[in-house]
Design goal:
Blueprint lengths: L5 H17 L12 H9 L24 H5 L2 H13 L1 H19 L1
Amino acid sequence: MSELDEESLALNVQRLKAYQAKLIVLPRNPKHRTAEVVEAYKSAAQASGQVVPVPAAFVDEAPRAVSAEEKKSRAYVALRQARGIQRSVGKVQKRIAFIKEKKENAKK
C-alpha cells in the first residue's frame, strides 16, 4: 500500500478524526476557558505510547510455488529494457520527425 493511494489516505483521515475527538485543548486566554473545558482538562489522563495506533492494512501472502511462467520471465532484463525505452523516447520521436520531414522534402 502506497502512502498516496486512496485507501491509505482514508485510513489516515479516520485516524486523525479519532485523535481530534480524544484531544482536549485548553485555550491559552483564561477569558475563553469555560468550566466544562477546565473540568475535562483536569479529569483527562495523559496518554502514553501510540495515541491512535496505525492499523495494519498489509496482509502477508501465503507462500506458494513459483509457476513455470514466473521462472521463464526475466524481470531484470524487462526492467532494463523499459528503462532504456523510457530514456530514449525523445530521441526516437525526434528521429521519426526528421525522417518524415526528409520524405516530405524529397517529394517536392
